[in-house]
Design a protein that fits this description.
Length: 103
C-alpha cells in the first residue's frame, strides 16, 4: 500500500536490459539467448502486477546511455518512495573486486 494513501497499492515497474554483444569480445562470445531471457522474465514478472518500462533498452547502449535513459524515465514517471522498480539484466559482466555489467 502507498504511504500517502493506504488504499492505493504501490506502482510496480520492470526494466529489462538485454545486451547480447559486447564490442570488446569476438562474435563467438555473442549471447543468443538474451532476447528470449528478457522476454521470459518480463512475462513472468508482469504476472505479479509489474508494468514493463523502457522495452528494448540495452542493445548497443553505453553505460552512460543506460544511466541517462533510466534517470530521465524515473523523472518522467515521477518515481517516488512508494514505487517499486525491478531491473533485470541479461548480458556480459565481469568481476574485478566489484561486479561490472558490460554494456
Amino acid at each position: 500500500m502507498s504511504e500517502t494513501d493506504p488504499t492505493t497499492p504501490a506502482r510496480r515497474h520492470l526494466i529489462t536490459i538485454g545486451a547480447a554483444r559486447y564490442r570488446n569480445l569476438p562474435d563467438a562470445a555473442y549471447l543468443p539467448q538474451v532476447d528470449a531471457d528478457t522476454a521470459t522474465v518480463a512475462a513472468l514478472i508482469e504476472r505479479f502486477g509489474y508494468r514493463r518500462a523502457l522495452a528494448g533498452l540495452g542493445e548497443y547502449a553505453t553505460a552512460e546511455h543506460l544511466r541517462r535513459t533510466m534517470s530521465h524515465w524515473s523523472q518522467d514517471a515521477e518515481i517516488g518512495s512508494d514505487d517499486i522498480v525491478a531491473v533485470y539484466y541479461a548480458g556480459h559482466g565481469l568481476v574485478d573486486d566489484r561486479h561490472y555489467l558490460l554494456c
